[in-house]
Amino acid sequence: MRGRAPLYRRTAVAVIALLACAALVTALMWNSVFELAFLSQVTLTPTSRGYKEWVAPSLPLFFNVYVFNWTNADRFPEELPNLEELGPYRFREHRRHINVSFNNQNHSVSYRTQRSWYFDEEFSNGTMKDNITIINVIAASAVYRSRHWGFIQQKGLSMGLAMLGQGFSVTRTAEELFFEGYEDPFLDIARILPSTTTGGAPPVDRFGLFYERNNSMDTEGLVEVATGEASGTYPGQILRWNNYESLPFYEGACSQITGSAGEMMAHNLTEEPFTLFVPDLCRTVHLEYNSSGSLDGVLYNKYTMTEASFDNSSRSPDNACFCSGECSWSGTMNVSACRYGSPAFMSLPHFLYGDPELRSYVTGLSPDPELHSFYFAIEPRLGVPVDVAGRFQFNIFIEPTPNIA
Q1: Quick check: 86 and 171 in contact, CB under 8 A?
Q2: Residue range(s) defining the domain that contains residue 70
Q3: DSSP assignment, residue 180?
């Protein structure tokens, strides 16, 4: 004859079932609890931990500059330019956000970024006194600006270049080419010319690749990002740039200002492309998922620029609206529209993923994905960068102009 189970056994079963239910509920709630706790720390509010690290990052930042020394400039155009890569010239970077203003109505914060660079001779392969020969950017820009001028105007420019001793190349020290800048008589003339002639470029007394960027508050412009408080947004999601909600340089999808501003990312990232707004490019870029890995025990997703990033639409039709002016080669981005009409083109270093024709015009280039790729490695759940390499190459477009010697 079967009897009823003892009371202690039935009670034990009930307790175990209750504990199992509690464990299940806790597990189901944990993600929500974690999300709330995490968001409270990274939301860009004056009292959050994330804000304090964002407004003045404590992590060490480095800016490495490589430059191509033109070794046979005196034999151009008889010989192909031979380029010798020099560097890195390493600079320690101190960054802080200033003029921070919160807008409680749309849960956003606007700011400017001030960057200060200090030369780190110990970890550099070169000194600021190195002599370097590069193309004469000032003369090349003037010629590019004149490409649609009439015969008499172009001849006038040609005479002016000759009278001022403007050659095809210049040799300057590294400190002059980088931050200090150097004087040039052509700049003195440019300051008195009408803005229609100079493309609206602000008058400067010196030229340098990074002249007036050190300690400047205007390099990256006025940026407005979401604080992450509003539903459907995340901290650091760009909303406006220089008061633009869409870019005036491009049309259609290419004019969109979207994605991360580059310092804070969405969390729970997947293998979908990662979107980033880059002020130096004046555009949004999409980084493709590349791989997953671990760095010091932290899991990450790696997102990189690919062959499609700077494609001239030959393989990526969506890039057609970025072709503002000359757009002949895949692998280069024409940014002249947001550089006052100067012949500025951006690419990955050594024309990585670029049209092979680009490398046929010079010697000394050797693209290597390990050395020259642009990538973000991000802890996917928290959206925290664990390794970043933001690599670009600045190029000047030139072409023969019949009326200019």
Answers
A1: no
A2: 43-54+64-396
A3: I
